[in-house]
Write a structure and sequence with these properties.
This protein is of the alpha+beta class. The chain has 2 domains: 117 residues, RRM (RNA recognition motif) domain (Alpha-Beta Plaits, 2-Layer Sandwich); 153 residues, no CATH class. Strands 6, 7, 8, 9, 10 and 11 form a 6-stranded mixed β-sheet that branches. It has a 5-stranded antiparallel β-sheet with strand order 2-3-1-5-4. The longest helix is centred in the N-terminal third of the chain and has 11 residues. The chain is extended. The relative contact order is 0.11. InterPro entries: At4g02000-like, DUF4283, Zn_knuckle_CX2CX4HX4C. It holds the Pfam family DUF4283.
Length: 353
C-alpha cells in the first residue's frame, strides 16, 4: 500500500502551494526528539492482528512496568512504548528477544528523526548455542569466528580467562530476520572435520519450511508456491533448533551485577510449534516433561511465570496464591407471630443454603 502511494505521488504535478518547502528549526523539534530517547518501538510479528489490550496487560506485567510504561497504537501490531523509568527500558532492551502469544516482538530504539515506515525491524539479538565443540576450541576467538555465520556477534559468554568451557558455547548475535536461521557450520581441526549444530535460546514460532522467524510454515508463501503442501518430504527446520538458556552461564561469574549476566531457572519458553505436525501428519516432537501447562506467553494465566530474559532470569517468577474466601452456608431468621408455634415469642430459625 505504501509503495502504491509513493509511486502515485511521483506522478503528481504539484501546484504552487504544494511546492512550498518548510524548514523546521532545531528548537522546534528538540522537545519531541528528547521524548523519543525514552521510547521504544515494537512490532509483533504475527500472521494476524493481536489483541491490543492483552498485549499491553501481559507485557506490562512481564516487564514489571506497572505505571511506568505508556502504550500507543501505531497501526497493525505496532506500538510506541514510552518508559517513565530508564531502568525498565534498559531491561527490555537487554532482555531481548521477547515474544507474545509465541510471536516474536521486534523491538527497536525510537529515533526521533525517523518516520515509522523507515524503522528497520529486520534485526533482533538472540543467544546462539554451538553444540559438540572440542574443549580446545571453546574460547572467545573461536566463538566470534563461528558466530559470524549466524549474524553479527554482539558478545561471547566467557569467563574471566576468556574461556567458554561448558556443555555448549554461547554467542549473542544479531540475527537478520529476513534470512533463514543458520542451522550449523562445518569446522576443521587438524584432520578432523565436524558439523557443529546451532541452537537458539528463546526462539519463538518460526517457519519449519524456509527457516524464517517472521512467519510459520502454515503461512509460508514459498512453501505454497513450491507446490509441496501435500508432500511428505522431511522439513529442513524444526523445534530442535530451540535451546534452553543455561542456569549458570560463564559471564555470570564475572559480571553478576550486569543485566546481561544474571540468570536463574531454565528459561523455557512455551511454543505452539513444539507439538506441531509435519505436512504428512507426523508428530515432529513432544514437549519436555518439565513443561508447565501454564503458557508463559498466554495472557489467560496472569499469575504464572510469564517470561525470562535472555539469560533465563525470572522476571515474573511467582504464582500468586488465592486468598481464602468465606463461603456463605446459610442465614439465620428471627420469626414470631400468632401463627408461629411459639405464639408471639421470637424464635431463631437457621436456613441452610
Amino acid at each position: 500500500m505504501e509503495e502504491e502511494i509513493s509511486h502515485h505521488c511521483k506522478s503528481l504535478k504539484l501546484t504552487e502551494e504544494e511546492q512550498q518547502e518548510y524548514y523546521l528549526k532545531e528548537e522546534e523539534i528538540t522537545f519531541s526528539h528528547d521524548i523519543s530517547n525514552s521510547c521504544l518501538v515494537a512490532l509483533v510479528a504475527a500472521d494476524r492482528e493481536v489483541n491490543k489490550g492483552a498485549f499491553k496487560a501481559t507485557m506490562t506485567r512481564l516487564w514489571n512496568g506497572e505505571g511506568g510504561i505508556t502504550f500507543k497504537d501505531l497501526g497493525r501490531n505496532k506500538f510506541l512504548l514510552e518508559f517513565h523509568n530508564s531502568t525498565v527500558r534498559t531491561r527490555v532492551l537487554t532482555g531481548r528477544p521477547w515474544s507474545f502469544d509465541r510471536n516474536l516482538i521486534c523491538i527497536q530504539e525510537c529515533k526521533g528523526r525517523l518516520a515509522l515506515k523507515d524503522i528497520d525491524f529486520s534485526l533482533e539479538p538472540f543467544w546462539l548455542q554451538l553444540q559438540d565443540l572440542p574443549f580446545a576450541t571453546m574460547n572467545k576467538r573461536t566463538s566470534e569466528k563461528l558466530g559470524t555465520s549466524a549474524g553479527k556477534v554482539i558478545m561471547v559468554d566467557v569467563d574471566e580467562k576468556g574461556r567458554a568451557w561448558g556443555e555448549v558455547l554461547r554467542v549473542k548475535v544479531m540475527i537478520d530476520l529476513s534470512k533463514p536461521l543458520t542451522r550449523g557450520c562445518v569446522i576443521n581441526v587438524g584432520d578432523a572435520r565436524s558439523w557443529i549444530p546451532f541452537k537458539y535460546e528463546k526462539l519463538p514460532s518460526f517457519c519449519y519450511y524456509c527457516g524464517i522467524v517472521l512467519h510459520t510454515h502454515h503461512r509460508c508463501s514459498r512453501h505454497f508456491s513450491d507446490g509441496s503442501t501435500h508432500t511428505k518430504s522431511p522439513l529442513q527446520y524444526g523445534p530442535w533448533l530451540r535451546a534452553d538458556p543455561p542456569q549458570n552461564p560463564n559471564h555470570y561469574k564475572t559480571h553478576s551485577n550486569s543485566p546481561e549476566g544474571k540468570t536463574t531457572g531454565n528459561g523455557r519458553q512455551a511454543n505452539s510449534d513444539d507439538q506441531e505436525s509435519d505436512f504428512g501428519g507426523n508428530n515432529l516432537s513432544q514437549k519436555s516433561a518439565d513443561f508447565s501447562p501454564l503458557d508463559p506467553c498466554d495472557p489467560v494465566h496472569p499469575n504464572s511465570t510469564l517470561e525470562k530474559n535472555s539469560e533465563g532470569e525470572d522476571l515474573v517468577s511467582t504464582v500468586k496464591k488465592k486468598q481464602p474466601q468465606l463461603v456463605l452456608r446459610g442465614h439465620q431468621l428471627e420469626m414470631s407471630g400468632p401463627h408461629f408455634p411459639t405464639g408471639n415469642q421470637t424464635r431463631c430459625v437457621w436456613t441452610p443454603i
